[in-house]
Design brief:
single chain; Rossmann fold; alpha/beta; about 190 residues; 3-stranded mixed sheet; 12 strands; 9-stranded mixed sheet; globular
Length: about 190
């Protein structure tokens, strides 16, 4: 776990405090990112869940430009709405994704708030303890509907890919910050740009 030293968590909405706590348990420094200058000196960035259309509005042009520049050269993980933000295609004209991952994502692909659920997920060997399911919480979760061949599936709910990686970008449709299992956080910390 030597790749990432200080993790930034985009703190515009979503449960950014739970993300921060998970990395602090793993003895990493964490900084909440609300302004462009908050990105200075970070090793990686997490874009948490929330509401992707709202996130599009909250990302001021200056902060958006700084996030895009930062993400080009640093490991970045998008969870739930963050997955939508890292995609190249959100299939929703109200959302302006950052366009880093060759994935197509359907907002609320698993249903609305009332359709939220928990499930045991199957994990790839590189995540660790692949014999043991990873518990996932899906809240208005996006669904990965398409991806290029260089996108690597890492976690599945049934046949659906719910976590994937492309280069130094990681996305998950569910909320790993809400669970005690820190395998994905450890995997992310080991990623290099």
């Amino acid at each position: 776990m030597s790749g990432v030293l200080t993790v930034g968590v985009l703190a515009l909405q979503g449960d950014f405090e739970r993300h921060a706590r998970a990395f602090e348990i793993l003895n990493r420094s964490v900084r909440e990112v609300r302004r462009a200058e908050d990105l200075d000196g970070l090793s990686a960035l997490v874009i948490p869940g929330g509401e992707s259309t709202t996130m599009t509005l909250l990302l001021t042009p200056k902060l958006r430009d700084a996030v895009v520049e930062f993400c080009r050269n640093h490991p970045t993980w998008g969870t739930c709405a963050g997955m939508i933000m890292l995609s190249k295609d959100s299939r929703d004209p109200r959302v302006k994704p950052l366009g880093f991952m060759d994935i197509e994502v359907e907002r609320n692909g698993y249903g609305r708030q009332v359709h939220s659920f928990e499930a045991d997920l199957r994990v790839a060997e590189e995540i660790g303890e692949s014999h043991k399911p990873l518990r996932g919480i899906f809240i208005r979760a996006p669904r990965l509907t398409g991806f290029s061949p260089d996108v690597q599936p890492l976690v599945w709910h049934g046949e659906d890919i719910v976590c994937a990686r492309q280069n130094h970008f990681l996305v998950s449709a569910f909320h790993p910050e809400l669970m005690d299992d820190l395998r994905l956080q450890k995997y992310f910390l080991a990623m290099k740009a």
